[in-house]
Each structure stands twice: as structure tokens, then as C-alpha cells.
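Feature request, filed as a ticket because there's no other form

It would be nice if the structure record came with a short human-readable summary line next to the C-alpha cells. Right now we just get the raw output. Example of a typical job, pasted below so the devs can see what we mean:
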Amino acid sequence: MLQRPEERNAWQPGIRRTVQPHDDDEDVIVPRHNYFGAARFYCVETITAPCGVVIAWVKFDRSESPTNILNWLDKIYPTEESRPHYICIDKACRVLRTAIANGSWDRWKKTTRFIVDAYHYFNHRTLDYLCRKWCNPGPLDGSAPNLVKVAYDKNGRPYLQRAFNTQACEQLNSWLGGFESILKRMKTGNFDWFLHTMLFYHTQHVIQKQGQQEEPHQIIEINDDEDDDSGEAIMERHWNVEDDD
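Raw output as currently delivered:
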């Protein structure tokens, strides 16, 4: 049977599935019409610290639903002592609504607040009071002082800025995008091993880079005083710590 270029038959899997917007009201699961092609996972979900260190990752098979996110967070943070004060999610307002509806918010509200990352927050609806009130990544009303800090410009004038990098996961996704052509052709076992290994090396690189920024550098200066009758060079040694700014 001949097949024309760009022709897709009913039993062939699509070239690219439609990506569901992160803030859709419904998680639509498209039914399969045949089983001629291999099944695919919907997405890879990651938990990343603001500094870029990868904490955990998981594969979601059908959808990135708020229920799946909450169940995964319960596995990663099973106790109150292990939970962070803030969890930044692109669909945090939907996760918060789901948590309130199914009762899991009674456990999370004691320790954690769900906020939307800065990139997706600007695209959320301005009339969404719950999102604007409880999921704001940088509130200026003083309700979350740990999320906002005072910085100074070159003229010494103070201004407010976000205290943490809320787009660490988006930056990690951009880096992982370079391996998409390799990962999408792998079997499940190879996919898990390759992704876990790359995330491990990425985390080691981030930690090493942070250590280099914090490590003081030894600087040796030799002052040769021509007027010194002794003719001996004077060596000064001091430590210089690079400022992050």
C-alpha cells in the first residue's frame, strides 16, 4: 500500500498530541480509538528548589490533574515536618480549589501555601479572587513578607522584588527540552534511567556551582618597593569573597 507524504491513517498515532492548557477547568482525557501504537505518558512532573536542585520527579500517564498533583505531593511530603512553607505550581489556584473540595486542605493549610509562579500568574484571570488573594507569588500588602524583599538600585533607592526564583521548574523544563527528541523514542526503562541520570548530574552541577560562588578565593599580591634598601619583596595575602550581586 502506498502512502502519500504527510498522510496519517486512522491506526497510526498522532505526530503530536494537543497539549492541555495548565489552567483549563476540566482535565479532558482523550479516549483511544485503537491499540496499534504504543501508549505514551502525558507528561513528566518535577519538584525543584528555587536554587535549581531537583528534589523529585514522576510521570503522569493521562493528565496533569490537580488530584494527581495532590496525591504525588502527599507521597513526597508525608509529614508536616517535611512540608515546605510554599509550593509554587503553574495551576496552584486549581490545586487549591481541589484541595478544599476533597478535604486535603485541612492537612496542608497548617504548614503550606500554594502559589502560582510569576510566569503563569500574569496570564490568570484578573477576576479570579481566590487566585489573586491566596496564590499571588509577590503580594505587596504585607500578607506574605517572606516572598518579597527590599532591594536597592544603583542610586540607592529602595524597591520591592521577589525573594525567590519561582520559575525554577520552567527553567528546568527548558533545559530538558533539549533531550526531547531522544526521550520520546525510548522505552519506559531506558526513559526512566536516562532522565534520572540527567537530573542527577544536573543537580550535582547546580550544587557545585553554588559551592564555587560561596568559596572564598585566595589572592596573593607582591609589592616590590623600589625604595626599600633591603631589596626584599613584600608579599600580602588576603581572602576575597565574591559578592552574589
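Something like this underneath would help us a lot:
Residues 96 and 114 are 7 Å apart (CA to CA).
The two ends are 65 Å apart (CA to CA).
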